Amino acid sequence: MHLIEDLYLGWQPLSHTVDCPRPTWDVVEERRDEGARIVSTGAEQHACPNDVCSHSDTFRRVQLRLLCRDCGTVRTVTGESLTHVVSSVTDSGWGQAPTERAGLWLWPGQPVIQGGEARDYLVTREHAETVSTENLLGIITRYRDASGAPQWIAGALPDAAGAHQVHSLRWRYSSNGLDDLDAAAAWIAAAETRTHRPLVVAV
Length: 203
Ligand SMILES: [Zn+2]
Ligand SMILES: [Zn+2]
What we know:
By secondary structure, this protein is mainly β. About 10% of the residues lie in helices and about 30% in strands. It has helices at about 5-10, 90, 180-195, and strands spanning about 30-35, 60-65, 75-80, 100, 105-110, 120-125, 135-145, 150-160, 165, 170-175. The strands form two sheets. A seven-stranded antiparallel β-sheet has the order 4-5-6-7-8-10-9. The chain has a three-stranded antiparallel β-sheet with strand order 1-2-3, with no helix packed on it. Strand 4 and strand 5 (about 105-110) form a beta hairpin. The chain is extended, with a radius of gyration of 23 Å. One zinc ion (ZN) binds next to loops.
């Protein structure tokens, strides 16, 4: 299971040259081979504190190669013990289209069971390409109360100095337990308008 914030936030597009006329990558290619470790002295095997490492002079190397013919950028992504997982949007949550609730857009986290419902959602105001720290408005997460009934908690307005923590992120507001996803989305929508309304004090 991935935390929903790790699924959506902190991902950066691989950049092209600033003047690239059509910034899209050709078909991404993969190559698997043996990579040589750099050892300081000829025949000696390297020693490192990693228990999982075989300490051999070669390792199973995976490389990904990207090319843009329009700006001529070539990127090679490689690493030792690079893992490669094939999944689908149904199983990862990420990559699914957002759904509209209470006039906001909800982006699902990874379902708890394969093909099931998500337990967490990130929320944006607009139907954007994806969620980023720039357009993130709220978070909704499900838990079970003492009687085992599902409840939803919403956080609204991300703020590093916010008083409320939901998952690893801090928020200006967070709700009490709400009965369903629609109520949680409506609560976020209301939290947003509340901050835009000037405080009127009757005297
Ligand atoms: Zn390019
Ligand atoms: Zn080693």
